[in-house]
Amino acid sequence: MADVVLEKVEKRFGDVSAVSGIDLTVQDCEFLILVGPSGCGKTTTLRMIAGLEDVTSGDIRIGGRSVIGLPPRDRDIAMVFQSYALYPHMNVYKNLSFSLRLRHTPKAEIERRVQEVAAILGLSGRLNRKPRQLSGGERQRVAVGAALCRQAGVLLFDEPLSNLDAKLRVHMRTELKRLHQSVKSTMVYVTHDQVEAMTMGDRIVIMNGGSILQVATPLEAYDKPANRFVAGFIGTPPMNFFQGMLTATAGQGSVDLDGGVHLPLTRPVPEGSNRAVTVGVRPEHIHLSAEGRGNRQKVAATIDIVEPLGHDVIVTARSNAGIFQMQTEIYAGLRPADTLDLWFDTDRIYLFDRETEWAI
Amino acid sequence: MGDLTKGAESGETRKARTAFFDREAPFGYGLVLPAVLYLIVFIAYPFLMSIYMSFTDAQAGNRTWTFVGKANYSKVDSYELSANDFVIATFPSQSQADDFIAKKSTGQQVTDAAPAGLFRGAIVIAGKKIAVMAMPSADDASFNASSILEDLQWKARKTIGGKYEVVAHSETPLVIGTFPTRAALKSAQGQILVDAGTRIKANGTGVLQDPNFLLAIKNTFKYTFGTEVIKLFIGIPCALLLNRAFRGRKLLRGLVVIPWVIPIAISAQAWLWIFDSTYSVINWTLVHWHILAPANIINFRGDKDWAMFSVVLVNVWRGFPFTAIVILAGLTAIPDEILERARLEGANAFQRFIYIIGPMVRPILMVSLLFSVIFSFTDFNTIWIITKGGPFDQTQVLSTYAYQLGVNAGYLGKGAAVSLFMFPIMALMVFFMLQFLRREEA
User: Fold this and answer.
1) For residue B354, what is the nearest residue in chain A, using CA coordinates?
2) How far apart are CA A148 and CA A161, in angstroms?
3) What is the pLDDT of residues B185-195, one digit of tens each?
4) pLDDT (0 to 100) of residue B2
5) Which residues in B lie closer than 8 A to residue A44 (C-beta atoms)?
6) Which of A13, A52, A162 to mutate to test the interface with B (most CBs of B within 10 A)?
7) Looking at the 3D structure of chain B, how many domains does it have?
């Protein structure tokens, strides 16, 4: 059993608060992703779990045992670093077995585990190579392999894919996910890439400014973002935001966007919740016609830019409410300067309090 | 028509000229020219000249130099055969051997004629006649035999076979004879009739026959390896210390290199005072702490046992910053993540040093060692300023000896020969170090 529990964990560097009192529970065998922009405290959190950073206050428990004050080697963890941190003077075999050799594991056992890990990661033919003689993807796999060899309860990943090229990154994403399904250990994975977070994680922890904003499954994070930051961070292309006023009359709500665009809401809004709001609409929830799923509301717009991606195009358009992006098929044949009516799916409109930025 | 052709021609020449100035190759050669001239005038010419000079009888003041072949390197006038130990007799027991030694004073020396016109020198003790050696002259034979009998110390020694042998021992080797050729020496060696550990020495005017030259080679190695080992022992901890984060680290990093940047001619003056026979601050301190009696103060530059220590100390003081800074550069090149991973994988500080830091710094350490060895091996300044090779040539190294011989004594040819001996030795050392580096990289 290797669950990880963080309780009111705080980290300060001098006067700067890097992580401000977070609570988090990672279930046994869960693949948890810490995601957020640079400097949001996700890597610091990971390093505190690893024991590479001291905790200013709070408690961290791994497998039910508090690890505060324990050196990294006694925490039942293994870590994969962003730069892979392979020992350049050791061949792959020695890189994989370093931690085992330090522990005086019997030679036969080392051999067995290294061969097993090498087979899982497809490194069997590379055991005598030095890291310098490996490709980027192979180095990455050696780094993962070294962590696997320890058979630690918790595997920590610090942006392990950020040094790979785009194609290899997509490939390794799948590989790591497959690996998690086969090795059955708890994994905590830090990334700044929301696509990685969405595709790989059982649950996602979205962090910003040293705090946790939302802990959710990928679907929940996409469907029910807890606040404006999460809504803007999850999903590509990012959600469109408009400024507007929420009015609720007899349980029926509607928002008036700047520029006279009126959007009636289909979901009930509590009486007296009239206020200034930020309105969010995802690009994929803006359509070319009134026909189809959900209630749709007409907004007049002019096309500015069309960016084809293949099957899809991303269209940047102007309306009275502001500039926004929508995603549609390339076969729609949109051109810049076209003027047309676009249809917003009013079932999928997100509302955020303009003051607190939390979802309404 | 004519005008037209003329115009076309001038157009063509202009084109050719710009093309020449546009071409990069001549420009490149032009830029390299000063360096090539420098190499020829200051490196190649002196080097070739010293090779040439080492084969001539060049002397200061001589106008004409004549070619003398390898005479400067090796010219043997005679071979000297000598030995320290002569095994005179063997006995089955210790007491019998001791008895034999006790009767040494009653022994007599006799000389007989031997076949082939030789004379055999022998010792007679208690009726037992031991032939020692045969020599062409009766005088030599009787002189050597009586030397063994009267001047040498006799001792009993247990052999590997469990027997006891009586050995005549001499602290300074007993010269058995000098011979003009190696063949004559060989035949004389065959005429020594007792077991003797003989040694052959060549007397001559070549530097290889010069005992001071051999001493200089020995001193050069002592000096080089002494300083290099100590530099590493100080430089590595120093680099590890400077790699830690602490207040004033940058200042200290700057201060450490001071010995390296001060010209040796200036810093050596300070060392001359530190090593002064009367005013040495080291002696003063030791006396004041009652570690040393005032009568026993150390004469750093004058005492033959301390002189080498003193020059090594100065070279270490001067050279260790270089070693430390180079190792520090190697240390800072190790990514933090690698050390963090090692920590995570359970390596303590000592294991990180042995398994991670050491191997990763080793290549750059070897480069620094290579440079440092070259500097020390060819070092002239330090020794010349501190001891001038003295006392009794105890700190004479190849470079100072070449200078003494070639410039001070005026034997340019021999001086050149001495200095050229450094070249193959260094080439070999550099070769092996580069070989090692290449293997590291593979």
Assistant:
1) A102
2) 17
3) 777 777 776 77
4) 44
5) none
6) A52
7) 3
